[in-house]
Write a structure and sequence with these properties.
- The chain has five helices and five strands.
- It is of the alpha/beta class and 202 residues long.
- The protein has a five-stranded mixed β-sheet with strand order 1-2-3-4-5, with helices on both faces.
- Strand 2 and strand 3 form a beta hairpin.
């Protein structure tokens, strides 16, 4: 938990733990199957190999049966969050606490989705998949160079609330303050310590 001390960058294993923990504990039970969470290493592998070579990540899951795909992306030592809505058409939402656009990320994710579709959905009669929309909603800006991981974790938490409340995709964006981020570090650290303590007792 050293990376949760003030001024430290969040490690990928902490991010993965929190995403899974938050989805399990904050999402309504009947909605848990509507979301697919990708590991924080996924995008790195996507940039290193042809997308077809990493189909094994989801070989036992029909990602297009999910309503939302959640993909944390570390791009140039900076964390951003890509959300994919699969219905009624494919839409991407990219959340970045520096509020920049990431064309190469758009292209990589789009190509991956198209390749999975082509490989797994030929019976649909639609050979190619088209991304209809890419949104960059405004995200509360980080005031330093170290809090990007926390900002996408908090954005994910707000996204879970969005799913629970069935809000409008076209107008949604995460709302929180930097003051919340300061306390968020402590909350995540305590959550991890509680989880470790619980496992020791069991």
């Amino acid at each position: 938990t050293a990376c949760l001390e003030k001024g430290q960058e969040i490690k990928d294993n902490v991010l993965d733990f929190y995403f899974l923990h938050a989805a399990e504990n904050q999402l309504r039970e009947n909605l848990k199957e509507s979301i697919y969470l990708y590991n924080s290493c996924f995008y790195l592998r996507l940039t290193q190999f042809n997308p077809k070579a990493i189909f094994k990540w989801t070989k036992n899951t029909d990602i297009f049966s999910k309503k939302y795909l959640v993909i944390p992306v570390c791009y140039g030592h900076h964390w951003i969050l890509v959300l994919v809505r699969t219905r009624p058409h494919i839409s991407l939402m990219i959340l970045d606490s520096l509020n920049k656009e990431h064309r190469s990320v758009e292209l990589k994710i789009t190509r991956y989705l198209q390749d999975v579709w082509s490989a797994k959905m030929p019976q649909s009669g639609k050979k190619t998949l088209e991304v209809k929309e890419i949104r960059y909603p405004t995200v509360p800006p980080q005031p330093n160079n170290t809090d990007c991981g926390l900002y996408i974790m908090k954005s994910f938490e707000k996204f879970l609330d969005f799913v629970n409340r069935n809000l409008k995709w076209a107008s949604w964006y995460p709302e929180f303050s930097h003051k919340e981020i300061l306390s968020f570090r402590r909350e995540i650290k305590q959550t991890i310590l509680d989880e470790i303590s619980s496992k020791k007792k069991s």
